[in-house]
Amino acid sequence: MAAATRTQFNRWLGPLQRLANRMLFQLKDREPGQVVLVMRRVFIVPTRPGLAFAGLLLVMLIGSINYSLGLGFALTFFTAACAVADMVMTAKNLALLRLAPGRAQPVFSGQEAQFELHVHNDTPRDRYAIALGFLHDGEPRHALDAASGASASVTLAAATDGRGWLAAPRVRLVTRFPLGLFRAWSYWQPDLRVLVYPAPESDAPALPMSGAASEDGHGTVGLDNFAGIRSYQPGDPMRQLAWRQIARLDPSLGGQLSTKHFEGGAVSDILLDFTALPPNLDVERRLARLARWVLEAEARALPYALRIGGRELGPALGDAHRAACLRALALYGTEEL
Q1: CA within 20 to 30 Å of 148's CA: 156, 237, 254, 268, which one?
Q2: Which of 198, 106, 201 is nearest to 161 (CA)?
Q3: How far apart are CA 269 and CA 209, in angstroms?
């Protein structure tokens, strides 16, 4: 009975907390483009040293009243005025900063996603000791200074678990400058996301090298039958250039490009087919194996094609093809594929 009551209470408490956060702290699900921290988005409370300082002021005031100390009153009110000035300066250290999202490079699942964030100071006041961090990480640890009319950047890391798009978590900015008596903070939800690729399978089998020989007898995969060195011919792939022989030739003596020649036994381009994988593997295991094969084919400079989810990427090599294949694996089963 008590557990059911607690569960029902938590069910009501969650929406109430989200509503309070939206109303009190101006929290939003997403803030596209650049954001300016207006004063109503900056919140401030006394720190523990600030509370101790307030207690000291109270003791000084009571002592001055009891003993009618004119200099005591002067010192008390002067110190209190310094505390008020510190409160204003602490809040203004965050106010009117302009925040903008940067870049976020794709990563593999299990790696840390790196989110680049920019802080622009368009005001004539220098800003010091501003700490940034993701809200779920606790107290921010990345500190920066932003001079007048200048910008500063910070890169925050977030753990990844699973493939697909990962949105940047909510960011909190905190400052205690200049005296540390007050703590000012603000929240920002950057419209930034990173693409998370499937983690490559660690013990994947060898690349599927089987295939039919090309019509001219010169395949692009399985170049194991080395036949010698010949003169370069238009259309020869760059990866087959014989660089050692080329380096020994003197162009002034009629030197020319040379190519490694292979014959027989070559097979057609590699086809990585999602449906051709063993049926006992689940979807994530298949994607992990294909990701490993994509990386291996790139490392060995073997052109490869990918067929997945009714989509086929033709045989190719290079960073663009690698990114397109890994993106298709990361977004498999989603509407964006």
Answers
A1: 156
A2: 198
A3: 8
